[in-house]
Amino acid sequence: MSDEQAIRKTVLEILGGIAPEADLAALAPEANFRRELDLDSVDFQNFVIRLCKALAVQIPDRDAAKLTSIEQCIRYLK
User: Fold this and answer.
1) Which of 15, 20, 30, 74 is most open to solvent, judged by the fewest CB atoms within 10 Å of its CB?
2) What is the pLDDT along the chain (78 residues), one digit of tens a residue?
3) Among candidates 54, 41, 56, which has minimal Cα distance to 68?
């Protein structure tokens, strides 16, 4: 599994835990998942925290706003 695939899988798993009712298969990679999944600020903060833990990375608050689509997450974390 490539880094890109691993990041995509992790992002989708975390989003699935935060928005279990969401159809993640229909979510376009470039779509703003915060808007598409109707994530509020607490949900988004939980997403970033879980992402940091899952991938053992630190994401500064100023960069978190860049992580609003699967593709943006991959570009940032790769």
Assistant:
1) 20
2) 679 999 999 999 999 999 999 999 999 999 999 999 999 999 999 999 999 999 999 999 999 999 999 999 999 999
3) 41
